[in-house]
């Protein structure tokens, strides 16, 4: 005997001779089917197609940009999500470096402009390092990186009291790995809206 639980009903039958299938919907409506194994498989295939057809999204929705973020307007201006999506929250550093690259300065210029627009917002700059080096060395390097960001924002007119600094060193990697691709993503400073 083959016993299979389908929905809230129990299917019991000898699968070699005859199959019985009882399906229940969430509203406890029953749909029963008895027949040969071949017919049962056809019925299951039909039920699966009907179930998939009932889904809300269609391939055309995805092709037109639905649920892809391209047309989303639900990001509230001045929010942490607005900062991450429209400004950029991180800058990257070279090996054992805490000086700002031209790309980092461009990102920080956008951050400074956003912080000037939303004058009541405070941020915390998190300094990070890759896994190489001692814990103490990487904590100090992460702090120097975070302070580089804070000093740059201060030079752009953001009061130092609105910018906190914390270093995580190598304790919170963005990418796990022991290669240059991972290390380059972990040598960063992340500005987090409080």
UniProtKB/TrEMBL annotation:
InterPro entries the record matches: Bact_OuterMem_StrucFunc, OMP_bac, OmpA-like, OMPA-like_CS, OmpA-like_sf, Pal, Pal_lipo_C
Superkingdom field: Bacteria
Gene3D superfamilies named in the record: OmpA-like domain
UniProt record, GO biological process: cell division
Gene Ontology CC, one term: cell outer membrane
SUPFAM superfamilies named among the record's database cross-references: OmpA-like (SSF103088)
Record localization: Cell outer membrane
Protein keywords: Cell cycle, Cell division, Cell outer membrane, Lipoprotein, Membrane, Palmitate, Signal
Boundaries of every OmpA-like domain copy: 80-194
Function: Part of the Tol-Pal system, which plays a role in outer membrane invagination during cell division and is important for maintaining outer membrane integrity.
Subunit (UniProt): The Tol-Pal system is composed of five core proteins: the inner membrane proteins TolA, TolQ and TolR, the periplasmic protein TolB and the outer membrane protein Pal. They form a network linking the inner and outer membranes and the peptidoglycan layer.
Family affiliation: Belongs to the Pal lipoprotein family.
Classification via HAMAP family: Pal (MF_02204)
NCBIfam families recorded: Pal_lipo (TIGR02802)
Protein name per UniProt: Peptidoglycan-associated protein
Biological source species: Azospirillum oryzae
């Amino acid at each position: 005997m083959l016993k299979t639980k389908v929905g809230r009903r129990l299917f019991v039958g000898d699968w070699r001779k005859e199959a019985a299938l009882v399906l229940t919907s969430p509203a406890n409506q029953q749909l029963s089917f008895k027949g040969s194994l071949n017919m049962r498989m056809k019925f299951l295939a039909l039920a699966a197609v009907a179930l998939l057809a009932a889904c809300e999204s269609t391939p055309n929705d995805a092709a037109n940009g639905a649920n892809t973020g391209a047309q989303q307007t639900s990001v509230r201006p001045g929010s942490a999500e607005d900062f991450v999506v429209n400004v950029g929250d991180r800058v990257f550093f070279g090996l054992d470096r805490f000086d700002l690259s031209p790309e980092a300065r461009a990102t920080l210029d956008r951050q400074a402009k956003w912080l000037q627009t939303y004058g009541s917002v405070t941020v915390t700059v998190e300094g990070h390092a890759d896994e190489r080096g001692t814990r103490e060395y990487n904590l100090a390097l992460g702090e120097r990186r975070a302070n580089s960001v804070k000093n740059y924002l201060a030079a752009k007119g953001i009061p130092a009291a609105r910018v906190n600094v914390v270093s995580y060193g190598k304790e919170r990697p963005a990418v796990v790995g022991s290669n240059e691709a991972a290390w380059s993503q972990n040598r960063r400073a992340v500005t987090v809206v409080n």
